[in-house]
Write a structure and sequence with these properties.
124 residues, alpha/beta, four-stranded mixed β-sheet, 5 helices
């Protein structure tokens, strides 16, 4: 007889497998590992887009280093969290913004995850 789902098991979210986390940390520096892991456990659908983004980041920012962190934006309606991919580059600010726009229009804005508001790409 199949196991019935109770309210306790219905809300259970299995932890992220170790392999995607190891893969993420191969490409990205995790600034606050616990916060990033916790956020991705709540939103595992973001793992694949973040991993796919790395190739596209490198195409536009070949010498850049990418960081992952969680940003918490508090307002009167509560707190909104999002995963931030910060691209650290040595190019001047104008060139960095131009390259980020290229990244956005060539790849990021065509991705379904771009519509969720849970993932932000920025330059620093």
């Amino acid at each position: 007889m199949p196991e019935q789902m109770t309210s306790d098991t219905a809300s259970f979210t299995p932890p992220i497998p170790v392999v995607p986390l190891e893969e993420l940390s191969h490409y990205f520096v995790l600034r606050n590992r616990d916060a990033v892991v916790g956020f991705l456990e709540s939103h595992p659908e973001l793992i694949r887009p973040v991993l796919e983004a790395y190739t596209h980041i490198q195409a536009v920012f070949p010498d850049a280093q990418a960081f992952l962190d969680v940003d918490i934006d508090g307002d009167l309606l509560g707190q909104h969290q999002q995963l931030v991919v910060a691209i650290a580059t040595d190019v001047d600010a104008h060139a960095a913004v131009t390259r980020l726009r290229t990244f956005d229009f060539d790849w990021w804005l065509t991705q379904p995850a771009s519509k969720t508001g849970l993932l932000l790409f920025t330059v620093e």
